[in-house]
Amino acid sequence: MQRANSKFGLMTTAIHAGEAPDPTTGASAPALHMSSTFVTDQVAGFSAHDLEDDGNFLYARWGNPTVQMLEQKLASLEGVEDCICLASGMAAATAIFLTFLSAGDHTVISDVSYAGVAELARDTLPRFGIDVSLVDMSDLAAVAAALRPNTKLVHTESPVNPIGRLTDLAAVSKLAHEAGALVSCDATFASPLGQRSAFLGIDLIMHSVTKYVGGHGDAVGGAVAGRRELISQIRGESAIHHGGVMSPFNAWLVARGLSLLPLRMTAHEAGAQAIAEWLEAQPLVNRVIYPGLSSHPQHELAKRQVTNNSGMISFQVGNAATGRKIAQQMIDRLEIIHYAVSLGHHRSLIFWMETQGLMDTSFRLSGAQLESYRSYGGDGVFRMSVGLENPEDLIRDLATALS
Ligand SMILES: *Cc1c(COP(=O)(O)O)cnc(C)c1O
């Protein structure tokens, strides 16, 4: 598997992109540069407007060598020109919205998304005079109908948190571009290995690197990858002005995790496939959503678009009361799997996400949009992030909680 613009495969890219042996010490592993400022031999301006793409380092809010190493790795893996890393996934989402939207603009955002993004779209953006339409992105006619002359950005998420619904990224990109809008995709669940976002037309590829990219549950961060001209705009606005930059230490940890991402994703996928198939055979489980199962409602789209099914499984166990009961059994009985939020780590994580609660706090859907949600999520789902433990151990652990 290779990205179009690289002569190297993805495993080579993940290890070597952005790195080189240290020219003075010969160190083979990348250095951790904590420096906040950089000595310069140039008399230059001190403004975001003076930022040059290939300029020297000046101050860590503009750029830092260790953070830049991670940015180059991610840009290379996504097959795009540039990337910016920020303090968290939410900082990355905010960067996209506040860089490319202004008062009077309109944006179309997936009606189901990471809860923080959902609340930002519903509560924060309108405060700044930005008009938001919330659309079921698996319904292409609804996407087309929502586009307006002043639509500047279409923000998708695929697969969508927490129900695993997919978006046809090529089709949505085409519609958005015809309307003159940029397209962003929160690809956190997919990881850079799970879909060829740039090839499918996505202009701004967003990740919470807290999840698969870092992969070890020990560093919070976010990233946006895309064309240089777009990433430079985000750097000027969100890094230099809004200030949510990534710590070099986090960048170093995340880059270390990223080096083995292709190997990890292969193992996440294999483990999740085994567990999804096992779950489907359990009498207590009445629905399993995983792109690698032929029972996924969009299995045909998954076969066309998804290049790694990742380790994210959603499953249902009957009504909300049963879900809460099993959740408590998980808390009491699980030996290996952690009952905790977050995802993409080497440790397996599971969390009960009840539909009514999410509707009240984050999604606030009704009518056909609520029906579409419920056709994937029922009364609630267990969102399981299958880690890198032996799948048979995870199955034994799950079995104790599902009895
Ligand atoms: C976790 C997550 C985010 C937010 O990322 P943080 O690093 O926690 O700020 C955004 N989108 C998705 C899909 C996520 O899973």
Task: Describe what this molecule looks like in 3D.
- The chain has 403 residues and is α/β, with parallel strands linked by helices.
- The protein folds into two domains: 10-258, Aspartate Aminotransferase, domain 2 (3-Layer(aba) Sandwich); 262-401, Aspartate Aminotransferase, domain 1 (Alpha-Beta Complex).
- It is built from 14 helices and twelve strands.
- A seven-stranded mixed sheet has the order 1-7-6-5-4-2-3, sandwiched between helices. It has a five-stranded mixed sheet with strand order 8-9-12-11-10.
- Helix 9 (261-280) packs across helix 14.
- The radius of gyration is 21 Å and the shape is globular.
- The two termini are 41 Å apart.
- 51% of the residues are buried.
Layout of helices and strands:
Layout: H1 10-16, H2 65-78, E1 82-86, H3 89-100, E2 106-110, H4 115-124, E3 131-135, H5 140-146, E4 151-157, H6 169-178, E5 182-186, E6 204-208, E7 222-226, H7 228-242, H8 248-258, H9 261-280, E8 287-289, H10 299-305, E9 312-316, H11 320-333, E10 338-339, E11 349-354, H12 355-363, H13 367-377, E12 380-385, H14 391-401
Helix pairs in contact: 1-2, 2-8, 3-7, 4-12, 9-14, 11-14
Bound molecules: pyridoxal-5'-phosphate (PLP).
Protein traits:
Aspartate Aminotransferase, domain 2, five-stranded mixed β-sheet, 39% helix, alpha/beta, binds pyridoxal-5'-phosphate, seven-stranded mixed β-sheet, globular, 403 residues, Aspartate Aminotransferase, domain 1, 2 domains, 14 helices
Query: Which fold does the CATH topology of the largest domain refer to?
Result: Aspartate Aminotransferase, domain 2
Q: What ligands are attached or bound here?
A: pyridoxal-5'-phosphate
* Whole-number count of domains: 2
Q: Please state the structural category.
A: alpha/beta
Largest sheet: 7 strands, mixed
